[in-house]
TrEMBL record:
It comes from Saccharothrix saharensis. This is Iron complex transport system substrate-binding protein. Pfam families: Peripla_BP_2. Belongs to the bacterial solute-binding protein 8 family. InterPro entries: ABC_Transporter_SBP, ABC_transptr_periplasmic_BD. Residues 45-326 form the Fe/B12 periplasmic-binding domain.
Length: 326
């Protein structure tokens, strides 16, 4: 089992043969991350990948522990709308593609990323590869591999957010702040539940894809956003996080609402372009959401694991309440 432990040991011998005692080992904290017990020294040069992951650090007040962040070019709008925009402005933007060379150049002592949120066997940027370089990693819990191929997700999405907040709170010594955030988020989700009515509309999360749609199974943040807001994720039976399905399955499951991810990926990059495609695609013509024009848009940073998830639940709950119970 991999141990990411930093030890400071100094053993010096003088010309007279007198030996200076070793310095005390650096204090470490052990947490469970993606099913493994991992020990961390308190990091001071963290590099994050993706908007939501950076915002977890910012929400915990840990911007000063960051060497920088990496975000894709399609996430500029998320930064502009971020409640932590001032932190994004203060902390160095290291680029759009995370690599071993980039994090080495930043002198990172910890990389906070996730599978398909920076970590990838295809690029060789993996926790094991960074461990070989002496760089610790913390994996986003929403994206933990669950033991079935490359499927991701080991717990309900909101629990994943709370787990990461608590783990990082311990690693960085800000446990009280983590618990304060969690209590506030739980209250926000509880208040949103008061808007939920008895009948639950079926919701299709549309991220991208023209030939095949990219959507959310039960382990990605949209599943809990939809469910806690009073809807049912039509692909909530899939034991995966973000995944590709077929248009036939969307038609068969007849969603009442389409929740669009405002994320620039593929040919249709804006919410308006995505809606125009859905409305013009003949197989979807009789789907209730399309027929009645029920669309709702949330930013990418609200639909991946991030501190924006509770506010997204509240906003979507209000939309569903207004749309189906005016």
């Amino acid at each position: 089992m991999k141990k990411l432990v930093a030890l400071a040991l100094i053993a010096l011998t003088t010309g007279c043969g007198a030996r200076i005692a070793p310095a005390a080992a650096t204090e470490t904290v052990t947490v469970t991350n993606c099913g493994q017990q991992v020990a961390y020294a308190k990091p001071s040069r963290v590099v994050t990948n993706d908007t939501g992951i950076a915002e977890i650090m910012f929400a915990l007040g840990l911007g000063d522990r960051m060497a920088g962040y990496v975000i894709g070019g399609g996430q500029a709008g998320d930064v502009a709308s971020s409640p932590w925009k001032a932190d994004f402005d203060r902390v160095p933007n290291l680029g759009e593609q995370i690599t071993k060379e980039l994090v080495q150049g930043a002198k990172a002592d910890l990389v906070f990323a996730g599978w398909n949120y920076g970590f990838s066997e295809a690029t060789g940027f993996t926790p094991d590869a960074l461990d070989d370089l002496g760089i610790a990693t913390y994996q986003l819990t929403e994206a933990c591999r669950n033991g079935v191929g490359r499927q991701r997700g080991i717990m309900p999405p909101l629990d994943a957010l709370y787990t990461d907040l608590r783990n990082l709170g311990r690693v960085f010594g800000v446990e009280a702040k983590a618990e304060e955030l969690i209590a506030g988020y739980q209250e926000q989700v509880s208040n949103a539940a008061k808007l939920v009515k008895q009948n639950r509309p079926k919701v299709f999360l549309y991220d991208s894809g023209l030939d095949q749609p990219f959507t959310s199974g039960r382990n990605a943040a949209p599943h809990d956003i939809i469910g806690k807001a009073g809807g049912d994720n039509i692909f909530g039976d899939l034991d995966d996080s973000w995944t590709t399905v077929g248009w036939e399955a969307v038609v068969d499951r007849a969603p009442d609402v389409v929740l669009i991810n405002d994320y620039a990926d593929g040919e249709a990059t804006t919410p308006d372009e995505k809606r125009a495609f859905l409305e013009s695609y003949p197989p979807l013509a009789d789907v209730p959401a399309i027929r009645h024009g029920r669309f709702f848009v949330l930013p990418y940073a609200a639909l991946v694991e991030s501190p924006r998830n509770p506010a997204a639940i509240e906003a979507f709950a209000r939309f569903l309440a207004d749309s189906f119970h005016p």
